[in-house]
From TrEMBL:
Organism name: Balaenoptera acutorostrata (Common minke whale)
Record-given protein name: sn-1-specific diacylglycerol lipase
InterPro entries with a match to the protein in the record: AB_hydrolase_fold (IPR029058), DAG_Lipase-Related (IPR052214), Fungal_lipase-type (IPR002921)
Domain of life of the organism encoding this protein: Eukaryota
Cellular component, GO annotation: cytoplasm; plasma membrane
Residues in the signal sequence: none
Places the protein is found: Cell membrane
GO molecular function, one term: triacylglycerol lipase activity
Enzyme Commission number(s) from the entry: 3.1.1.116
Catalytic reaction annotation: a 1,2-diacyl-sn-glycerol + H2O = a 2-acylglycerol + a fatty acid + H(+)
Cofactor(s) needed for function: Ca(2+)
Length: 642
């Protein structure tokens, strides 16, 4: 629901977000109240010491104050449980309760200060009573400090600009005034996001490229979030509902309802060969991450294996290899690839915005020169990831007959961000090196135009594991996800705390997904439901599909697609929701890019992107296919190894 308005400004918290923090505070306060009451009843006869009357009065007032606070917090929890995300009407008294609760902090702070002063004066009473007072003062200040931290977290810098207008938008304004308001809000939001990003990335320098990346990323975030009035818990609840809905639709789907895109017999014939190539070249893509990934994959033996390379001076060996900032990386690269020093041409871990670490090596087994580009591993890489702007590539793609002397071919590989960079580099090198190949592991979806995507299918192979979110991540898909979150929230008639509890249970232990409405996949997403209008901010153009909508403008953010042909590894069988070491087998198939046109929600949407998980899945798939090489192949466009 829209954020609460308190003290004349909007806050990044809703009136139904106070159930869990309220229950926690109630638990602490009730235990505290019982402890103080017990302390007073047991030791009140021992308060006839000097200063005992003050302590007795202090305890009595504290017991009464705690009882009032407990009553107020109980009321806040009860009210916060009412209504739904899109129906805050039953919670209209929440703001008054919060004003009362905040007002009670004043006597609590005063009383905690007095208690500290009396203890400091050294009141000579029973030691147990003194220790109880000290504990009371400590707990009071901890709660006050925690509340101050929470207030800072939920503070919305734009709240003062958004509070004066109703959630559905300032309809009383004419179109010109409304447009000015929206532009002003967007400018302010961009400035706020840029400040946040600069604060988070304060240690990466301030060159021109970094400043451009800051501005581009800030504009992206402000554009994406400026047209909805959602708080973070609304998004979490929407994701939980959407995950259950997607599982429910998939469970109810008949086998003949699954659309299969046949890649053709020629592609099917080389599936085994390309999968083996992916398995081989993934080692180079992993090696480009250097020692951090190697230590992570080998937590007990990794440091021992490469420790000598970190400590010993290998000046002679290093002179054979061009590059910089190698440190411990070279040892891990050698261990991962199994190559020798003389097999490397260049290794660089120079890391800046728009500049990625990479290595160049000779792969004698495959008779290829391998260029491996590192994926996301630093703040600089994250800024590069979030730069969503596109530009045309001036390529001459009309290549007829190109012949060259037989020699080592050029192969460019990478994972994640490195996969995207590798695909772009391959396309740019296609003319001078017609035999160049690229293996892109878990590449980002928002990479190529439709025509470049089709052009790249003759020399780029992408590999995607399971529900990996990155190959499904594009501005178009994010906009679709936002609309689906709004739609599923508007459909749900349960309070938010129940949605979150059910969602946590479902993510941890599984079970049957809720029987949620499924109009989402067949309905019209171009117009919001009545409940959704309360979640849109200031006359949002999100559903208008007009040129005024920033995300719908083809000149700013055109639709982009993943590179090349796509091999999809899907887990079959049960290995548990949080199995880090995949025990299940995998089906392997060629997939059409349209199968990655929606973001799938689930526990493995992030873990399936990790390079170590992908390497284990490839090991499992290749070994199973090798074991089943004598088995007859099933028909269809997919070849299962399970």
């Amino acid at each position: 629901m829209p954020g609460m308005v308190l003290f004349g400004r909007r806050w990044a918290i809703a009136s139904d977000d106070l159930v869990f923090p309220g229950v926690f505070e109630l638990f602490v306060r009730v235990l505290w109240w019982i402890g103080i009451l017990t302390l007073y009843l047991v030791h009140r006869g021992k308060l006839d010491c000097p200063g005992g009357v003050l302590l007795s009065s202090y305890l009595i007032v504290l017991i009464i104050l705690l009882a009032v606070i407990i009553g107020t917090v109980s009321a806040i929890v009860c009210v916060s449980m009412k209504g739904t995300i899109c129906n805050p009407g039953p919670r209209k008294s929440m703001s008054k309760l919060l004003y009362v609760r905040l007002a009670l902090f004043l006597p609590e702070v005063v009383w905690a200060s007095l208690g500290a002063a009396w203890i400091e004066d050294g009141v000579q009473c029973d030691r147990t009573v003194g220790n109880g007072i000290i504990a009371t003062v400590a707990v009071s200040w901890i709660i006050v400090a925690s509340t101050a931290v929470i207030i800072v977290i939920v503070f919305d810098p734009l709240g003062g600009k958004m509070a004066p207008y109703p959630p559905a938008g300032p309809h009383h304004l004419d179109s010109h005034e409304s447009s000015q308001l929206l532009n002003g809000l967007k400018t302010a939001a961009t400035s706020v996001w840029e400040t946040r990003i600069k604060f988070l990335c304060c240690c990466i320098g301030k060159d021109d490229r970094t400043r451009v990346a800051f501005s581009s990323t800030a504009e992206l975030f402000s554009t994406y979030f400026s047209d909805t009035d959602l708080v973070p818990s609304d998004i979490a609840a929407g994701l939980a509902l959407l995950h259950q809905q997607q599982d429910n639709i998939r469970n109810n789907q008949e086998p003949d309802e699954v659309v299969s895109h046949s890649p053709g017999s020629s592609q099917e014939a080389d599936l085994d060969a390309e999968l083996e190539n992916c398995h081989h070249y993934m080692q180079f893509a992993a090696a480009a991450y250097g020692w951090p990934l190697y230590i992570y994959r080998n937590p007990f033996t990794g440091l021992c294996r490469i420790g000598g390379d970190c400590c010993r001076s290998r000046t002679t060996d290093y002179d054979l290899v061009g590059g910089d900032q190698l440190t411990c990386h070279f040892g891990s690269i050698l261990q991962t690839t199994g190559l020798q020093y003389r097999d490397f041409i260049h290794v660089s871990f120079h890391d800046k915005v728009y500049e990625l670490p990479f290595l160049v090596a000779l792969d004698h087994r495959k008779e290829s020169v391998v260029v491996a580009v590192r994926g996301t591993m630093s703040l600089q890489d994250i800024l590069t990831d979030l730069s969503a702007e596109s530009e045309p590539l001036d390529l001459e793609c009309e290549v007829q007959d190109c012949w060259a002397h037989k020699e080592y071919r050029l192969v460019i590989v990478g994972h994640s961000l490195g996969a995207g960079a590798a695909a772009l580099l391959t396309i740019m090198l296609r003319n001078p090196y017609p035999q160049v190949r690229c293996y892109a592991f878990s590449p980002p979806r928002g990479l190529l135009s439709k025509s470049l995507c089709e052009y790249s299918k003759t020399f780029i192979v992408s590999l995607v594991l399971g529900k990996d979110v990155i190959p499904r991540l594009s501005l178009t898909n994010l906009e679709d996800l936002k609309r689906r979150i709004l739609r599923v929230i508007a459909h749900c008639n349960k309070p938010k705390y129940k949605i979150l509890l059910r969602g946590c249970w479902y993510e941890l232990f599984g079970g049957h997904p809720e029987d949620l409405p499924t109009e989402l996949d067949g309905g019209d997403l171009t117009q919001p439901l009545l409940g959704e209008r309360s979640l849109l901010a200031h006359g949002s153009p999100t559903y208008s599909f007009s040129s005024d909508s920033p995300l719908e403008s083809p000149s700013k953010y055109p639709p982009l697609y993943p590179p090349g042909r796509i091999i999809h590894l899907e887990e079959v069988g049960t290995s548990g929701r949080f199995s880090c070491y995949p025990a299940a087998r995998y089906s392997v198939k060629w997939s059409h890019e349209s199968e990655f046109s929606k973001i799938l929600i689930g526990p493995k949407m992030l873990t399936d992107h990790m390079p170590d998980i992908l390497m284990r899945a490839l090991d499992s798939a290749v070994s199973d296919r090798a074991a089943c090489v004598s088995c007859p192949t099933q028909g269809g466009s997919s070849v299962d190894v399970a």
